[in-house]
Amino acid sequence: MGNPCAIIGIGQTRYQTKRLDVSIAGLLREAAVRALEDADLTWDDIDCVVIGKAPDMFEGVMMPEAYLADALGAAGKPVMRVHTAGSVGGSTAIVAASMIQSGVHQRVLTIAWEKQSESNATWALTVGGPHSTSLVVGAGGYFAPHIRAYIRRSGAPDHVGTLVAVKDRENALRNPYAHLRIPGISREMVESTPMLWEPIRYLETCPSSDGACAMVLASEDAARRAPNKPAWVHGTAMRSEPIFFAGRDTVNPQGGKDCAADVYRQAGITDPRSELDVAEVYVPFSWYEPMWLENLGFCGEGEGWKLTEAGATALDGDIPWNASGGVLSSNPIGASGMIRFAEAALQVRGMAGEHQVEGARRALGHAYGGGAQFFAMWIVGSEKP
Amino acid sequence: MKDIAIVAFAQTRHSAEDTGLAETEMLLPLISGVKEQVGISRFGFTCSGSNDYLQGAPFSFVSALDAVGAWPPISESHVEMDGAWALYEAWVKMQYSDEVDTALVYGFGKPSQGSLREIMSRGYDPYYLAPLGVDSVSMAALQARAYLTRSGAKEGDLTAVAARSRAAGRNNPYALHLDEPSPDAPYDVAPLRAHDVAPEADGAAVVVLATGDRVAEISARTGLKPAWIRGIDHRADPHSPGVRDLSVSPSARLAGAKAGATGVEVAELHVQFSHEELILREALDLGDDVLVNPSGGPLSANPVMAAGLVRIGEAAARIHRGENRRTLGHATSGPCLQQNLVAVLEG
Amino acid sequence: MPTNHALEFPGGYTRSVGPVIGRFLSELRDGRLVGVRAGSGRVIFPPLEYDPDNGHAVTDEYVEVGPSGTVESFAWVGEPLPSHPLDRPFAWALVRPDGADTAILHVLDVGEYERGAAPPKRLKPGLRVRPRYRAAAERRGDISDIEAFQPEVTMITAPSRLEYDLKPGRALDRFLEGVSEGRILGHRCPVCRKVMVPMKGLCPKDGVPTTEEVEVADTGTVTTFAVNNLPDPRAPQVPFVSAYVLLDGADVAMVALVSGLPADQVRMGMRVRALWKPREEWGRTITNIRWFEPIDEPDVPFDRIAEYM
User: Fold this and answer.
1) In angstroms, how far is the first alpha carbon of chain C from the final one?
2) Do residues C204 and B70 lie in contact, with contact meaning Cβ atoms separated by under 8 Å?
């Protein structure tokens, strides 16, 4: 596990469809300055900067760590850029944490972002070469068949996806940074929206957002001087598997199971449902909540939808999932994973405001990407491990 | 810091033309070969470096994973940077993770598919630089001019760097074999002549890292001496050429100092343009007794996104073969040597 | 043969510039150069939101600089590229306007020269230059509102386009060759013995090369699918069905269109056959198959396809 790693600063931008009031650097600096203020530090105090985002084609700025180096106060410092598809926000935080755990640095600033409004998400994710052999329309077109397979395998009733869509948007009303804030959100409202990629309805999918999320990670020594209570890293894990091969389970991918097993082992967790107090899990389409409940071992296979239906994952349930409103409420793609990690940390710091889960002591942050083939997870706690 | 060694290095025979191999087809024999060489089929950690813009489509690293044999699922990460930074990420991971005692690192690129000098310009400030259409060779030429003006060096000094690199490259089976440069060759972007610009090539490189007991085990199998990483560091300068002194490289100097870059016998430098060698020699305090780029360096073959990792690999290979005791590998990224990484290796 | 591929976001990226760059570009459109003062007292030009030396926010004091300035360094472009702003020789120059402490990179137009010309003698650091603005009505509020430093006008709009020559790779090339002959080819993995269609020349699961070619049928079974209600240029109509089709003889389902029946009648386990375009329209592309259509065979039970999703 290495040296203890604390999260002493967290900053987020307001997530919205178009942040036309800021430049790319301005967007990142907004989140970074809030994280620095939380930690009572300035740019000068930072040893190293680790940034992450999804494909560069979103903004058309290739390898943006070069352009952003001095904008992020990194002149004379190391700056790195991580890219692991949709899980990148999580992997970026894990790489930043490794800079502390290894003892290489004392204070690391990590930021993930996307400014999707500069182009078009479907274009940027799927612009392909002339030799493509598949036909997929956007991420929904890729994931909808796997959701159909889940529903068929598990026998889940149709309304489970609707329940998640409502629950996460109700939570978003308590989060001032959330993008989609829909007063009076209800099952009827979700069910009245059209199918985009059946079985996925319009309100069962995530928005396209501009936004950035930043964290200041610190060594034990540096964390002592932090004004606010830190969160502590209890485990980190990443797993990857190929996208297409014979016998691959795309509904319940082995990579997710192995990644969860690894991070639980590090944190000494044997029963995640009872030992974790809250989870921020990457759910871009509502049906992924029951699917990931099973994949992450919160219940047996085929049982996830029953937890959702019983309200176990609601803010007042026994294991709240996505108290922040989750990816269904804010989705600046490259940042979405880091937001999960940061929200998990806010919970165990007791700083989640109106969406605070009372007494949260241990939390899971989760991200996935590609064809549900890249996974990044961390567990954070209120006590030093 | 924990002692970590480079125990294996392999690279493709870099090609100036598209040979018709997909990136995965280029990588598979390389990775399979190095697995066989070290006798390991699953590594504690895997990390790669690549750039989507070289093929004009997102997620180039996703299909590359097919060449690794990522089943059962592997612990893996990727940087959208030269493979040298993937090596750095793996080195950091190995410092503290008890489960990771070996790591596979690779970088790859096929610049033959597009216009590299224009592609690289997409990495410049999107408000002030990229809209101008300024390309990477022009940016480098700007730095070359600044260096010549400040130092009093002449264009012939640049040609001499190219001549020495090309002569060395002709003895390297993996490099392109290029003619002796002519001092009055036409300018590309003045003051840089054609031979001052690293010839882009399709290629890939793989490095295996190991620590603890695994080092001796692998070394016994390969018959190669381990190349211990004694120091590794990377630093950045501000981005815009207008806010820094282009004739020097403070970030290379700092990275070299942090990595302990003294007393090296050989330096493999990521020199994409002839003048960069002269700037880097100054920044890293490399005297005339230090052999620079005996492989021919990128001026003899520039497999973009792998070329920095190749430098570290070449520096390690000299120790593997027992030719040197202490060597240096360097990688750069961004315009005008904006980011620099230095690794110091020892037998 | 390589195939052309253009990476171009239609219409160009829409970049919000924020307050600092926005102030600079607004002044620029009005024909004025402004820098911004950093906490250190230096005037950063063109303005940044931060002091590039340390990342600290700059002050809100804008300072008019220039218009005259000094060339600090330059690069002579004897052979301009298509993406360059001039189609004849010019220089890239770092120009520090009077009153500024940093320089701007911009085009320096020193007159008409033949392509390939050597750098002109009068071009040297210290040269005094001025911006040549576009006509007021043509200024768009971006960096090219200055056409160049120094006069002489030949204007080219820099395209936001990159072109590539892409080859499919050897395995995919062979697959497309098969499709051009109306055959669907795959590879059998020597380790797991599974047949992958289209083949990649390797088994992603085992990480080994594959060479054993297998021709599979153009009939298969729908494993799972999505009904798409968003239009797509490749699809016949809305709604349309994108499905995973497990071809008979293959062990991996491939993504394809399913048509020839109402979308709400597509089923998991449904048997389908490729509908090929007329032979004279065939090329080396998967689109030789227009889509898959149902055939009159009983559905395959779910438990026999469950492991393929």
Assistant:
1) 35
2) yes
Do residues A289 and A317 lie in contact, with contact meaning Cβ atoms separated by under 8 Å? no
* Helices and strands in chain A: count of H runs, count of E runs: 14, 11
pLDDT of residue B80 exceeding 80, the answer is: yes
Q: Which residues of C touch B186 (CB under 8 A)?
A: 78, 116
Residues of B with CB below 8 A from C5's CB? Answer: 56-57, 113
Q: What is the DSSP letter of A337?
A: H
Task: List Cβ neighbours of A204 (8 Å cut-off, separation of 6 or more).
Answer: A161, A162, A164, A165, A190, A193, A285, A286, A287, A328
Average pLDDT over residues A134-145: 72
Q: Residues A233-249: pLDDT tens digits?
A: 999 999 999 988 988 99
CATH homologous superfamily of A5-120+208-223: Thiolase/Chalcone synthase (3.40.47.10)
Tokens found for residue B182: 């002519």
Computed over every residue of chain A, the mean pLDDT equals 95
Spans in chain C with pLDDT lower than 70 = 151-160
Residues of B in contact with C202 (CB under 8 A): 24-25, 28, 66-67
Residue of A nearest to B85 (CA): A80
Tokens of B143: 């730095």
Consecutive H or E run containing C73: strand C69-77
Phi-psi region of B221 (alpha: psi -120 to 50; beta: other; left: phi over 0): alpha
* Domains by residue range for chain B, with CATH: 4-115+200-227 (3.40.47.10), 134-197+230-346 (3.40.47.10)
Domain spans of chain C?
A: 3-149, 169-308
Q: What are the helix (H) ranges across chain C? A: 18-29, 170-180, 302-305
How many other C-beta atoms are found inside a 10 Å radius of the C-beta of residue B245? 14
- Which of C261, C262, C243, C263 lies closest to C305, judged by CA? C243
Global ipTM = 0.97
Closest CA to A48 of A84, A5, A90: A5
For the record, the structure tokens of B234 come out as 């990377």
pLDDT, chain B, mean: 96
A75-132: per-residue pLDDT in tens? 999 999 999 999 999 999 999 999 999 999 999 999 999 999 888 777 777 666 666 6
A43: CB partners within 8 A, 6+ apart = A36, A72, A73, C54, C55, C56
- The pLDDT score that the predictor gives to residue C152 is 32
pLDDT at C167: 79
User: To the nearest 10°, the Cα dihedral for B248, B252, B255, B258?
Assistant: -50
Task: Quick: pLDDT tens for B221-272.
Answer: 999 999 999 999 999 999 999 999 999 999 999 999 999 999 999 999 999 9
Between CA B110 and CA A296 the distance in angstroms is 38
Domain ranges of chain A: 5-120+208-223
Predicted structure pTM score? 0.90
Q: DSSP strand E in A169-299: where?
A: 195-198, 200-201, 210-219, 231-240, 278-280
For chain C positions 229-288, those within 8 Å of chain A (CB to CB) are 229-230, 232, 234-235, 239, 242-244, 251-252, 254-257, 268, 285-286
The predicted model gives B78-98 an average pLDDT of 97
How many Å apart are CA B162 and CA B197, to the nearest integer?
A: 9
Tokens of C289: 């198959």
- CB spacing of C3 vs A144 below 8 angstroms: no
Chain A hits for B76, Cβ within 8 Å: 84, 238-240, 374
Task: Check residue C158 and give its pLDDT.
Answer: 36
Q: How many other C-beta atoms are found inside a 10 Å radius of the C-beta of residue B177?
A: 13
Question: Residue A42: closest CA among chain C residues belongs to which residue?
Answer: C56
pLDDT in tens, B43-59: 999 999 999 999 888 88
